[in-house]
């Protein structure tokens, strides 16, 4: 019971001082910068060559694994072992995700730092506003924190199950199995070597060590990147919500009679300054979302483009693997779990992308519904209102070479393509 209460306190940040004026990005999300550092971005000594150590080392090891998986893929084709081929090809595509991510983050280091600086500025500014803005902003930040805990627990559990499905039978063989059972030592992933046995000592021990290493690298890169996508997209979504809140109260508590006074009258000048300050904050927030999307497109564009291009193939092969095992009376729990994780990690940014696109259009509607047509005060910021409404008609989306809009329509198209490929493979196999 005490452990449950401890997890509950962590999950809801019950010990965090939400009312403190010193709330910032680092003390609310201490995990963010720590998770970005292994991707090759340092925050103190930003130009240190040590930042390349982890990405380069992991990428070199990944390329070795890619070569080994390509050998296995070719072997599966030559022997017509399609189950072996599909599993190895899935791992091949998954492994190549890692160097694509490292390359994209390292090349666009300045864009990542700019996004983090902008988020830090949003924290400091919004947390010193009124309760309405502050409470709504921190509520969304708490949602991001909760997603981080759930997602990392999920991806870590999947990695643990991968280890467990190998270590349990290996323990059985080491302690209980007899010599006449003629069992083969299990491995995390299928292995094959030309003119050699990958399951003999010391080949088996070497492969087992590196396979466990690759699982940890994948969790540290793939798992972290999905969280970063969610964090940055939800942060921008929250900023758009604050823009809508500002439009709802843009003309509140202002004297409408000043419109009929001289332009240089002190009362009118004061109201004009208040309106200018309010619309300036709206424009600054709205523009910051577009800037953030441009930076996010440069960082995540290559990664998402890679996912969109290869995900249908991986999906259809995973579904084929599951269906093939089901015909034999077995449920491949490992691939079923892996398919669920991959489906979620693609659905999540597409879903949030659709929310952001619709929320961007909602900004234009909020501007139109801000009672500008019922108050003479709208004459004082008419041009600004028109500009914001025009800008809000531009859809929010990541722009990158050959990258479609990040939306549920894209997700539906990917899943349809994957199902079509799956049916084609099933028919040809029959």
UniProtKB/TrEMBL annotation:
Main location: membrane
Pfam families: 7tm_6
Keyword Repeat: no
Keywords for the protein's UniProt record, in alphabetical order: Cell membrane, Membrane, Olfaction, Receptor, Sensory transduction, Transducer, Transmembrane, Transmembrane helix
InterPro entries: 7tm6_olfct_rcpt
Subcellular location: Cell membrane
GO biological process: sensory perception of smell; signal transduction
Membrane topology field: Multi-pass membrane protein
Transmembrane segments: 56-78, 84-107, 142-164, 206-228, 303-321, 333-352
GO terms for cellular component: plasma membrane
Family recorded in the similarity comment: Belongs to the insect chemoreceptor superfamily. Heteromeric odorant receptor channel (TC 1.A.69) family.
Protein name: Odorant receptor
Organism expressing this protein natively: Loxostege sticticalis (Beet webworm moth)
Organism classification: Eukaryota, Metazoa, Ecdysozoa, Arthropoda, Hexapoda
